[in-house]
Amino acid sequence: xxxxxxxxxHNRKREFSPFTEGGQPVRCTLPAIAGGxxxxxxxxxxxxxxxxxxxxxxxxxxxxxxxTLGRPTHLLPLFARTFQQELADFFERELNRRxxxxxxxxxxxxxxxxxxxxxxQWHALGDWQLGSHIDRALLLGILDYRFGANGAAPxxxxxxxxxxxxxxxxxxxxxxxxxxxxxxxxxSGREPPLASPQALGLAPQAAWQLEIxxxxxxxxxxxxxxxxxxxAFDALLQSLSGQRPRLPAAAATRFDEQLRLxxxxxxxxxxxxxxxxxxxxxxxxxxxxxxxxxxVCVRDAALFRASVAERQGKLxxxxxxxxx
Length: 324
Hints:
By secondary structure, the chain is an alpha+beta fold. It is 28% helix and 25% strand. The protein is built from eight helices and 15 strands.
């Protein structure tokens, strides 16, 4: 055997490492030197390696949105349930009951807005700017119920868009957007501002998108979409931040004032035989001698000695001293 004070021996690179990480020599046989001494089992380490992802696979991965870091985006499902109830109440009151329709809503979806070719209409609601889009098939289904049709799917291609459809879309948006504001402010327990949606000519940059599919009974019609600008999205996250579990507030009083113990004073303790106790009668007198002080106990554990004094007709303890 030949002992080399080297961790590894590479014949190709002709490099020596003087010691292993543990400082122990590596034992190599002569045939092993020609091909390189294998590293000791103790010196093998599995180092994490970065994985290079192909462009096709990387396109499927969700990019990290830096705007949402440190913000309560994990509480957005709570808002989704609240706004879903507002939308369900709107469709039930405004459409189903009035026109004897059967509109049903799917679960609300939330996502980052993407570029599309839809014609969004934007309204200003206070400091917020909100966009809305209603699929045409859904608008036509609502119009059928408003004008007394049976709401069945039309045969062939639909006709060109009419001004009636555009007015209905604006009317629905002006009624739905205040309900969105009520859902946002309701998360923080505040009343929504008394403001009416005002139409905007230019579309601002959208920060968040809400989308919900609507069906007439079992027949899918289309989707209702809302977009929020940065001010509206910030207000939504601010309202959600109030739903975080908070630590209990610090007590205003000091700890020594909060800590309350029940003290019991033991002035006299005497053991009597059972026969003497049975012979006791009302008016019997026991000869005892009072100690100079009483034992002050906390949960039957004597901690202090104190003197008993009378003050204003009450017995008080004074002159506390520790029991050694």
